Amino acid sequence: MTVYNEQTSQYIQNLFVRQDPPLQLAWDDTLKKGLPAISVKPEEGRFLQFLVRACCAKKAVEIGTLGGYSGIWIARGLPPGGKLFTLEKEPRHAAVAREHFTAADLDGRVEIRLGNAHQLLNGLTPEAPFDFVFIDAEKEGYPAYLDWALENVRLGGVIAIHNAFRKGSVIGLVENDEYTEAMRRFNQRFASEPRLLSTIFPAGDGTLIGVKVA
Ligand code: SAH
Ligand code: DHB
Ligand code: MG
Questions:
Q1: CA distance to 30, 46, 136, per residue, from 10 (Å)
Q2: Which of 23, 63, 93, 175 has its CA 20 to 30 A from that of 78?
Q3: Which atom of ligand 2 has the smallest separation from the CA of 138?
Q4: Ligand 2 — pocket residues by CB below 6 A?
Q5: What is the pLDDT of residue 185?
Q6: For 64-104, what is each residue's pLDDT tens digit?
């Protein structure tokens, strides 16, 4: 029998997720300001922080900032002097995220770059290699984002990608939407990528995770 459900999610949160005021602000205020309610869940954020710390990341990239909720978790896994570049195409989202990073005292550690991530990534390549990349923007872009991450993450670095389950549709729990088939194909590609040792962390909407092994 499987025990993963809303109650186990709550149990994990109660034990391991302390949402201090900056995290609570980023969560609440993102909704209050009318940005979409698609931030990672608290226990997914905690997992991102864990991954960043576990691979001793100093330089990280996030594709898809929104209100900065996941970015705060990622930045809090970095050591002093570490750096998160987070890419966002909507000026309004970037402005809201900036407030939240400031409130979390992370201005020195987080740089928001505004624009289409596909173009912005070219400008980040000179800063490579990176230790950690989190992909959470438009799903059509995932194949190209993964290509970039595979080229620009060091051996032993980690690539994490949100929405592997696409709300449950990829495994037939709910009806397919326009991205379901693409996400299935993407998950298949990720699973068979020889440069990665990979799996899915199943909390929330599922996070593909791979450590670069070749
Ligand atoms: N990681 C965030 C949620 C990101 S939601 C969190 O968990 O807190 C996806 C974000 O990606 C949105 O803010 C959207 O504007 C942005 N986005 C979508 N397509 C993009 C693109 N091509 N380049 C940059 N950002 C993009
Ligand atoms: C949706 C959720 C996400 O986490 C995301 O990155 C994009 C879209 C959604 O529920 O539509
Ligand atoms: Mg997402």
A1: 21, 13, 23
A2: 93
A3: 7
A4: 38, 136, 162-163, 167, 205
A5: 98
A6: 999 999 999 999 999 999 999 999 999 999 999 999 999 99
